[in-house]
Write a structure and sequence with these properties.
Blueprint: E1 2-7, E2 10-15, E3 23-26, H1 32-37, H2 46-61, H3 69-77, H4 80-90, E4 97-98, E5 101-105, H5 113-123, E6 127-131, H6 138-153, H7 157-160, E7 163-167, H8 174-180, E8 184-188, H9 191-197, E9 207-211, E10 215-220, H10 222-227, H11 230-244, E11 255-261, H12 266-284, H13 289-305, E12 308-310, E13 319-323, E14 339-345, E15 359-365, H14 369-379, E16 386-389, E17 399-400, E18 403-404, H15 405-408, E19 410-411
Parallel strand pairs: 5-6, 5-8, 6-7, 8-9, 10-11, 10-15, 11-14, 13-14, 15-16
Antiparallel strand pairs: 1-2, 3-7, 4-19, 12-13, 17-18
Helix pairs in contact: 2-3, 2-6, 11-12
Length: 416
């Protein structure tokens, strides 16, 4: 049963029974009228930084965290030293406040994303409702466990009261309720997910921030591969593994097409890179049989539309195809769990012909930052919002998909 109230010309759905439409993961109960009445904070308040630092410490002390590199990375992001550094980068002298209630819809394919979205909301001074993935992930459970541990201490209740974590499936009408009380709705997901969520109305002054499904690539200079030491190559293999296999190549930032600059040493560089990388994957990753079938199916589908051939590898752990041409719809031929298309290019500017608004991240190795800045200025892309070294494509930052999240999630009251 639900009760309808009016707020800003939008129907507000107030659940009569707390868990009738969704599962409350944190805290154990919510006074919704009180929750929506909380006032926003200044960005990077001392209380929020201390709260996140305590969360970080609890996670890092938990032995179970060691099983999940993404959880450890999240905990390091929340350390006080890192947050103080970010405060220096994102907070200046102007008066700023959070926008109010942020309703976050986390993606289903990256377990830890809900945590980063929540942290961005807290740091920007907001009250946060986060819908975590309906899929069960141990990483999510682990972080929520430590949030509850903080709640038990009662020392950080003021910040803890700004957080609600929920889970529900597509049949629930909870989207309508949470949307109706949101000042900002933060949607992580594919185009279909975004369209579905947008069917739930927002108040008149509220708005969406959408992080849609996108495509990512990488560019490698072969001379840098040849000149690298064995230790550097092992580090590169680990870095590329974290970019790709850590989330089974499902993250929007995971490279799928690899561009190689043409050079005399190209074939030797490819052999060195892929052999080193394969050895690292072999030591870390267990490929499900169904994914071997999916990779072969993806190749056949690609071969129907594009002139492409399979590159030799010892097994299906790493599946490589070589493109003789660069189709504008290359992003349609992606596959998960280690499927890579490769293309040789004379200059990095050749990539420009395929870049659309759907392109998110370019990972690189062997290029100078100045080269890449000039590359963006010359080509004036609609896409490619992130250009980062290989190994950092999945690293969360407070500037994401071209949005400064602190600016976007806060407002500037002017005092003249």
């Amino acid at each position: 049963k639900v009760e309808l109230k009016m707020r800003n010309s939008v129907d507000v759905v107030i659940p009569m029974q707390l868990n009738s439409n969704f599962t409350l993961l944190y805290p154990v109960q919510v006074d919704w009228e009180k929750f929506t009445a909380y006032r926003p904070d200044i960005p990077f308040s001392d209380e929020v930084i201390e709260f996140l630092n305590i969360l970080s410490g609890g996670i890092l002390k938990d032995r179970n965290s060691r099983l999940y590199p993404d959880v450890i990375t999240f905990a390091f992001f929340c350390r006080k030293a890192n947050l103080q550094k970010l405060k220096g980068e994102y907070v200046h002298e102007e008066l700023r406040l959070g926008r109010g209630v942020l309703f976050h819809i986390a993606p289903s394919n990256v377990p830890i994303n809900f945590g980063y979205s929540l942290v961005a909301g807290l740091l920007s001074g907001n009250i946060n409702i986060v819908r975590v993935s309906s899929k069960q992930f141990p990483q999510v459970d682990l972080i929520i466990k430590h949030l509850h541990e903080i709640l038990k201490s009662e020392l950080y209740d003021e910040v803890a009261s700004r957080i609600v974590l929920v889970r529900y499936d597509r049949t629930s009408d909870a989207n309508a309720y949470f949307s109706s009380i949101a000042n900002v709705r933060v949607i992580w997901g594919g185009d279909t997910t975004i369209a579905t969520i947008r069917q739930s109305a927002l108040p008149a002054r509220s708005f969406d921030v959408c992080f849609a499904d996108r495509y990512s690539i990488a560019a490698i200079n072969p001379t840098a591969i040849i000149s690298a030491t064995d230790v550097e190559m092992k580090r590169l293999a680990e870095a590329f593994y974290n970019d790709t296999y850590l989330f089974d190549q499902n993250a929007c930032s995971a490279p799928h097409t690899i561009f190689w600059l043409s050079a005399d040493c190209l074939e030797a560089a490819k052999d060195r890179f892929w052999n080193t990388f394969h050895d690292y994957v072999l030591s870390k990753y267990q490929l499900q049989a169904v994914m071997s079938v999916d990779k072969l199916t993806a190749f056949y589908r690609q071969a129907i539309c594009v002139n492409v051939k399979i590159q030799d590898m010892p097994d299906n752990l790493v599946f490589r195809t070589e493109l003789s041409e660069l189709p504008k719809n290359i992003e349609e031929f992606r596959c998960a769990c280690g499927y890579f298309s490769e293309k040789t290019i004379e200059t990095i500017d050749e990539i420009a012909s395929i870049v659309t608004v759907k392109y998110q991240t370019l990972g690189y190795y062997g290029f100078k930052k100045e080269e890449l800045v000039d590359f963006v200025r010359r080509n004036r892309f609609l896409g490619l919002d992130r250009i980062v070294p290989i190994g950092e494509t999945t690293n969360f930052t407070l500037t994401w998909d071209g949005y400064n999240l602190i600016d976007t999630f806060s407002r500037f009251p002017s005092v003249l």
